[in-house]
Amino acid sequence: MKPRYWSLAIILLLVNYLIFAMLFSKLLGGDFTKKDHEQSYRTPWPTFTPAPAEPPIVIPTPTPFTPMPTPTNTRVLNGAESNAPTSTPPAQLMALSTVNVRSGPGISYGLVGQLNANIPMPVAGRNADGTWWQIQLNDGALGWVDTSVVQITNPASAPVVEAPTAVARQASVPQPAAKAPEKEQEKAKPAPKAAPKFQYEPTGWYNETNKGLTRFLGTIKDGNGAPVNGVFVKASCGDYATISFPSGPTGWGPRREASDWPAGFYDITVDTKPVPCMWILSVVDTEDRKTVKATLSEQIPVEVTVEKSIIVANWRRNW
Questions:
Q1: Are residues 136 and 214 in the same domain?
Q2: Inter-axis angle of helices 31-39 and 3-29, to 10 degrees?
Q3: Within 10 Å of residue 260's Cβ, how many Cβ atoms?
Q4: Could you give the CA distance from residue 191 to residue 208 in angstroms, rounded to a whole number?
Q5: CATH assignment at residue 130
Q6: Which tens digit of pLDDT belongs to each residue from 124-133?
Q7: How confident is the model at residue 273 (pLDDT cuts 50, 70, 90)?
Q8: Is 227 in the same domain as 136?
């Protein structure tokens, strides 16, 4: 082939290449590419825009209510106000024990009564130095008590009052009563006290714990409290009975039993173990500690148990 034909063929090839290149480029950037692109992806979910949040509810703090002050009544003096005086609690007193009530502020005044302990009493007044206090008794009479024997409450409320005059003081001294006729005096005498029935009477007894002895002991005295010697005490339980050695250091029998006893003391040891029984004690007169010549007191029952087997019983001689 001739060279000029080769040149023409090459030019045609170049023109075709340019045409195909432009067509291909148009296809790539045209609607077909866009449609295919849209179909290659799924339709996205719609996006929701959140609603704006509601503003928070604010509860207002209540303002404290301050009450208005209550107006008080005031007295107006010369155009100026003055507060009404406050009341003061009244004075009272209470005796620490039973105390004497006198007609005036002093021990030289006569007695008009007595005030029992722990009884609150209103105070009617006081003397100038506050050493005596005036009260009103149940019968309406006025009396005075010493400050050292009472307890005072609100003493400043008691007004100062004047003491009775010397005439009143003299009148307060109790006067002796007129003597009654002799017959009336005999009627007024108390009846004589009946003589005791027995020469000896018990003055008290009690039991003590001791599981090793059954024993009765005590003292015998006269009306003045002096010990009495030579007195026998009998203790009996059913058919069994025993009599003590005579009271005091008398020294009974050939062995001079009880010679070392204290004055007025007696003692009976029945056994070295408890003997439970309702025992009977009495003061008796005897010569041989076996035969009772006379019973000189009432019979006193005392109980002996396993736990308490020592009995202390004391006696007094009436004549």
A1: no
A2: 40
A3: 9
A4: 41
A5: 2.30.30.40
A6: 999 988 899 9
A7: very high
A8: no
Structural domain harbouring 281: 200-317
Three-state secondary structure readout of the chain: CCHHHHHHHHHHHHHHHHHHHHHHHHHHHCHHHHHHHHHCCCCCCCCCCCCCCCCCCCCCCCCCCCCCCCCCCCEEECCEEECCCCCCCCCEEEECCCEEEECCCCCCCCEEEEECECCCEEEEEECCCCCEEEEECCCCCEEEEEHHHEEEECHHHCCECCCCCHHHHHHHCCCCCCCCCHHHHHHHCCCCCCCCCCCEEEEEEEEEECCCCEEEEEEEEECCCCECCCCEEEEEECCEEEECCCCCCCCECCCCECCCCCCCEEEEEEECCCCCEEEEEEEEEECCCCCEEEECECCEEEEECCCEEEEEEEEEECC
* Domain presence at residue 44: no
**Confidence (pLDDT) at 234:** 97
Give percent above pLDDT 70 in the chain.
71
| Most confidently modeled range among 27-36, 70-79, 99-108, 221-230 | 221-230
Structure tokens at 308: 């308490």
Is 262 among the domain residues?
Answer: yes
Burial state string for 171-190 with b = 16 or more CB within 10 A and e = fewer than 16:
ebeeeeeeeeeeeeeeeeee
31 within a domain of the structure (yes/no): no
Residue given tokens 């009690």 in the structure block:
206
Q: How far apart are CA 309 and CA 214, in angstroms?
A: 5
CB 314 within 8 A of CB 300: no
* Residue 228 covered by a domain: yes
* Residue in the block written with tokens 């009306």: 223
Neighbours of 25 (CB within 10 A): 10
Provide mean pLDDT across the span 155-162.
90
The answer on 260 and 207 residing in a single domain is yes
Residues 227 and 306 in one domain: yes
Tell me how many domains the chain contains: 2
Mean of the per-residue pLDDT values for the chain?
80
